[in-house]
Write a structure and sequence with these properties.
Length: 209
């Protein structure tokens, strides 16, 4: 029985290896990329911006902007990163079946994901020279609210993330904060106006609050 189990494990490892290799060759069509260890798997980076993840025999591509809605329409699920005591859902979508069955439809999505990740990295690199009120959707009033909640600057805001910033503000102001602030913080984090957030993205944010 053990021998059969070992053989099955070997076969699975070979299949996973072939899948990864085919995906890497697929992504090469869009330009050069680097590989680094991430989340127990391999992260794919273009110009130091991560746009894809390969782990446990599954392929994931980064969401963001209008790409989220396309992933939702195609039935792709978000990557769940299992930590010691919690499960964190991050904005990477499982494209394994899509890659196997409809690779042509995936190519433009991966290209857009690469571009989005580069733009966000550039945005985050420029954060050192920005005030909270300089971020999209933020003004002096919101800057004061966020600082009162214990988030002193842009660097901290982006590191903590929109959901947890909202939680802090909501707690500080007695749990009676307009949910629009969550959209505004999410837009500020992504570098877009909050009205551009798609409904699936809003629902995903709400589920984390």
């Amino acid at each position: 029985m053990t021998g059969t189990g070992d053989v099955n494990l070997k076969i699975k490892e070979i299949e996973m290896s072939h899948l990864e290799e085919r995906f890497f060759n697929f992504v090469k069509k869009l330009g050069r990329f680097n590989k680094r260890s991430m989340f127990g798997g391999v992260g794919l980076f273009n110009e130091d911006a991560m746009f894809s993840l390969v782990t446990d025999g599954r392929l994931y591509v980064r969401g963001g902007g209008e790409v989220d809605a396309r992933f939702e329409e195609l039935g792709c699920e978000r990557f769940k990163h299992v930590k010691k005591t919690t499960i964190a859902t991050v904005n990477y979508f499982d494209v394994t079946e899509l890659f196997e069955k409809k690779p042509a439809s995936l190519l433009s999505i991966v290209q857009e994901a690469m571009e989005n990740s580069r733009l966000e990295r550039e945005f985050k690199k420029s954060k050192e020279n920005r005030r909270l009120r300089d971020l999209p959707n933020m003004q002096l009033t919101l800057e004061r609210m966020v600082k009162k909640a214990g988030v002193p600057d842009v660097d901290s805001f982006l590191e903590i993330g929109a959901v947890d910033v909202f939680k802090k503000v909501n707690h500080t102001y007695g749990g009676d904060v307009d949910v629009k602030l969550l959209w505004k913080f999410a837009g500020a984090e992504s570098g877009v106006h909050w009205t551009l957030l798609q409904e699936p993205a809003k629902q995903a944010l709400l589920q984390q609050v």
